[in-house]
Predict the 3D structure of the following.
Amino acid sequence: MTEEFNSSATARTKKSLWPSVLRWIPSSTDHIINAEKRLLSIVKTPYTQEHVNIGTGPPGSKVRWFRSASNEPRFINTVTFESNKDSPTLVMVHGYAAAQGFFFRNFDALTKHFRVIAIDQLGWGGSSRPDFTCKSTEETEAWFIDSLEEWRKAKNLDKFVLLGHSFGGYIASKYALKHPERVQHLILVGPVGFTSETEHKSEWLTKFRATWKGAVMNHLWESNFTPMKILRGLGPWGPNLVRKYTSVRFGEGDMLGEEESRLLTDYIYHTLAAKASGELCLKYIFSFGAFTRSPLLQRASEWKVPTTFIYGVQDWSNYQGAVDTRKNMSVPCEIIRVPKAGHFVFLDNAIGFHSAVLYACRRFLSSDPNSYPLAEGVVSI
C-alpha cells in the first residue's frame, strides 16, 4: 500500500512546455517536492519519504476522494524518521495553509523519544490534490478524517500519539472522537474549532457585518475565496510577498536563521501556490470570522482520549476554549502555555514546545514521570 518516493514519483506529473521562470505561477508539484527536500536537509535524523496509497475512497463509500471525476488512487505524502524500535509512535498533522515541513525544527528533538511520522493532509503539501467538491460540513470533515484513517490502515498502525496544529488540531480531535481506540494520547497545539460565534458572543463581528465592508467580506467568505487565490493571482510577484510574510512573522521569538528562513519561504510559497484542493474546506468548517460550524466544545462529554492542549502565550487562538471544554471532559486533560511564542509555538519557542510534548507523554515515556519537567517559563494551568 505504500510507494517509496523518488524521482520516478514525479514523472506522473504533467510537464509544462514553459520553463518555470516564464509561467504566471512559477510553481508545480515538482517544485513542492524539491522545496520540501531542501527544507528537510536541515534535519539531521535520517528519514524515509513515501507516497502512501489511500485508494479512491473509503470502503463502502459511494463517493471517491470526494466526487472526483477520476478513479485514480490518491496518496498521502509521508515522512518517517529513524528511531528506537520500541519508541511510541507520534503522528504529526499540520494546520491550514501549511504542510508537514513546518515541523522541521522539531523532528530531531522528538525522534529521540518517539517514532515520528509527519504527513501532508489530503489536498495539501506534497499529497494528492483531488478536485474539492464537498458540499457540506459533514462531507468536508469526512474528506480529512476518512483519508487519515485509510492512511493509518495502509501504514498498519495500531495505536499512536496524535498531534495536530491549528486546523490540524480540529481534524485530530474529530478523528479521535470517531476512532478513539487508535489514539493513545491527543496533543492539540493552538487548536481551532472549539467555540462557535454564538458561544464567543462577538459584538464586534456583528457590527462589522452590518457595514458594507463586512457584507463584502462575508460574501467573499461564502464564495470560498481563499488567501491562496490572492497569492496565485500575483503570479511571479507571489514569492516576494511570502518572503516578506516569513521575515515579519518568524523574525520573532526563537528567530529563524537566514538559511532556515530562505528554505521555509520557498517551501511555503510552493505549497500554497499549487492547485487549490484541501484549502477549499474553509467555508464549510468555519463561518465568517473563523467561528466553527460544528464546535468541539459541544462534544466535550464524548471525549474518550487523554488530551493535552499546548498554546503559545501570544497565540491568537484563545485557550479559554480549552478551559471550557475541559470542564465537561471525563478524561485526563492538561493545558500548557509556552512563553515567547505565538500560534506557531513549535517554531517560535522550539525548546519550550518540546518540553511540553514530552511532559504530555511522560506517563508512558518513562517509569519516572519526573524525568520530563517543563522548560523554564512553560506552565501547566
Observations:
- The chain is about 35% helix and 15% strand.
